[in-house]
User: Fold this.
Amino acid sequence: MKTVFLTGATSGIGKATAELLAANGYNLILSGRREERLKELQERLSHLADIHILKFDVREKENIPNIIASLPEAFKKIDILINNAGNAYGRDPIHEGLIEDWENMIDINLKGMLYLTRAISPQMVERKSGHILNIASLAGRETYPNGAVYCASKSAVKAATEGIRKDLNPYGIKVSCIDPGLVETEFSEVRFHGDKEEAKKVYQGYIPLTAFDVAETIEFVLSRPPHVNIADTLILCADQASSTIVRKE
Ligand code: NDP
Ligand code: 8X3
Assistant:
């Protein structure tokens, strides 16, 4: 049975992925900052798979190597790392943006992914096997107004993913990236700093992707035979043509 280390398991895409992977026979290390949600997932899924939960913030640069080193014996060998934790903060033109929002996006979306990859990839290199899957975004391929820093953070995730694939190629490690378009999760609630009404409007008038749609893509990428790596995937709802073109009623 393969062991997956999944960040951002408490909500949205990560939560749906945890549910689907547990049902498909993967053992899971689930992480996020909201411990109650991690415990709920562990209780609900533990009849399907072995689940270990870890409450930490992906910005904890100093702590992450210790967290990985202190995993219980049964979870020490990590076959798959899914760097999913991330969010957008704010939807402002650059001259009005909050610097704290920018720091959150760069520190969580980009640097958090790098810290986890740095801590977990050496054991994959040693074993000459493994799979790292990063969740970037359509926003990493295409910018849109009032999203410069989020788009930059995701573009950086995509560039880093390509570089990581090249670095890890000699060791037989697969490195993949999935880029979703609009997915209805808690993402917009976080982006609008908890304003649920504003968040709801993002998904009105068309049918967005669900977290489960993306989880299915993740499961597909992970379950390809050893010689196949789905390196890069764009998944959009049928109503979306680009970051700025969405067919609405
Ligand atoms: P959600 O807000 O529903 O989930 C975000 C997850 O990331 C939560 O589990 C949250 O856990 C975790 N997270 C956020 N910040 C941190 C942190 N500092 N440390 C640890 N965990 C953190 O959003 P989505 O499920 O939509 O987002 C998942 C990924 O998908 C993100 O990388 C996002 O950028 C990307 N994406 C989303 C799209 C969308 O339209 N929704 C489209 C394209 C990409 P907790 O708060 O408990 O720490
Ligand atoms: C999340 C999708 O369109 O809000 O990456 O940037 S979008």
Observations:
- Strands lie at 3-6, 27-32, 51-55, 80-83, 130-135, 173-180, 232-235.
- The longest helix spans residues 99-127.
